[in-house]
Structure formats: C-alpha cells, structure tokens
Amino acid sequence: MSLDNSRDEWSSIIRAIEDALPAYESTSEWISVGLAGPLRRRAVAFLRSHRREWVLDAGTGPGVSSRMLLEDSFEKIIGLDPSIHLLRFAGSRLGRRFCPIVGVAENLPLRPGSLGAVITCFSLRDVVSLDRSLDEFARATRRGGALAVVDIGKPDSTFWRALIGFYILHVMPVLARSAIRGKTPGNPFRMIIPTWKRLRTNKQLSDLIGQSFGPCALKSFLLGGLVVFEADRLSVWKDVLQ
Ligand SMILES: C[S@@+](CC[C@H](N)C(=O)[O-])C[C@H]1O[C@@H](n2cnc3c(N)ncnc32)[C@H](O)[C@@H]1O
Question: Cα separation of 112 and 120, whole Å?
Fold first, then answer.
C-alpha cells in the first residue's frame, strides 16, 4: 500500500468514527462482548499511581477513556485527537480537568518527560506510523512513568488468528449493524476491518512497545482478540538493550 493510500484510508477512518458518534460507546461495548469498558478500566487502574500527574489520552475520540480516568480521580488529562469534532464532543462532557489538544500521536506537542503516563484505547491501530507514535510516547513520558494500551488483538497462533479474523470480517459488521439500528448512516464500524488487517500480531506489538518504551506485559482476552499492554518507562531501558 502506498503512503498516499494509507493517508486516504486514515482520513476515512477518522470520518467513520465521527459518523459513529451517536452509537459509538454502546456499539463498541456490544461488538467487544461487553469487554471494551472493563478493559479500559483495567488500563486506568494500572496507571493509578500517576493520577496526580499529567496523563495523555492519545486518540481520545469521544472521550470514553478520559471520562473513566476522571471518574477514578485522575487530576489532569490531555485528550489528544486529530478530530476537532470528536474533541468538541469530549470537551463538552468532561469539564475543566480535561484539556483537549488537536494533534497526532506521531508528533506530540509536548515537552520531553512532561507526562506521568499515557493511555491509548482502541486508537493505536489507527495511527499512520506505529514506530513514531511509540517513540513519541516514550519521549514525552518521564522516567518511572507508564503506558497502557487497550486494543483489538491479532493472535500469534495461525488458528486463533483465523478465528478472530473471521469474527472481525464477517460477524462484527453484522453485530454493529444491529446495534446501530439507524442511529448513524451506513456502518462506520466496517472501518475496523482494514485496521485489523494492518495490525501486527500481539507478540510483535508487545516486543515493539518493549523496545520503544520499556518492559511490557501483554494480557490477552477472548482468545487474543482483545489485548491490554502494560509498560513501564525504566530509566535506562534503551541502554540495557544495547
Ligand atoms: C476508535 S477511536 C477510540 C476512541 C477512544 N480512545 C476510546 O477508548 O473509545 C480511535 C481514535 O483515534 C484517533 N486517531 C486516529 N489516528 C490518530 C493519530 N495518528 N494520533 C492520535 N489519534 C488518532 C481517531 O481520531 C479516533 O478518535
């Protein structure tokens, strides 16, 4: 795929999420078999020791994970997203502890070491450059900080990958269609399909996070179809690897 195609696809993904807004949270919950919310809360709990520091919610979208952070008494949330429309929606609901910023994970408008933690839920698979985004998370997070990633997973085992692939390609769009029930035009959740196809396997992504950010624990759910990565930013991590 050329870079231009991938940029076209990226714009379509963002438009699809904007279109999905009226049914976004309920449909995400439905197609994740009720696990999207609990896994976001798990990621929030992992970052709890950083609740007094600046925490970046990268790809905040309608602000679902930011809302959970605020409910858990986190004090200062930066909600980053390329969509002004989604940020306005999130900002109108989340109050003064939520600071919306238009931008992309590949080029964070933040000083080195200015964050205590980063959370990114169902967004990392949408970025154009995974490597640059992870490097940016590491740059902007202070030593001793942490990163939590929640996303759809791609199992390493061929058998489970085929099964999850079947669910994403053939079952998920039908479930999404029935959950949307006329609340949005078309079926914006179909945009999950190309992003899942481009996704690295769970182990590959875990290794990549480990190399860019720091030691990473991979937790798998639903046969590896949903994943949480919990990583710590150690002070000398890159030096240890060399
Ligand atoms: C599926 S939504 C997830 C929203 C929310 N985090 C949640 O937990 O439901 C993915 C979000 O990632 C955003 N996004 C896409 N590319 C991005 C990038 N390069 N950097 C930051 N956010 C991006 C999209 O605009 C969208 O709001």
Answer: 18
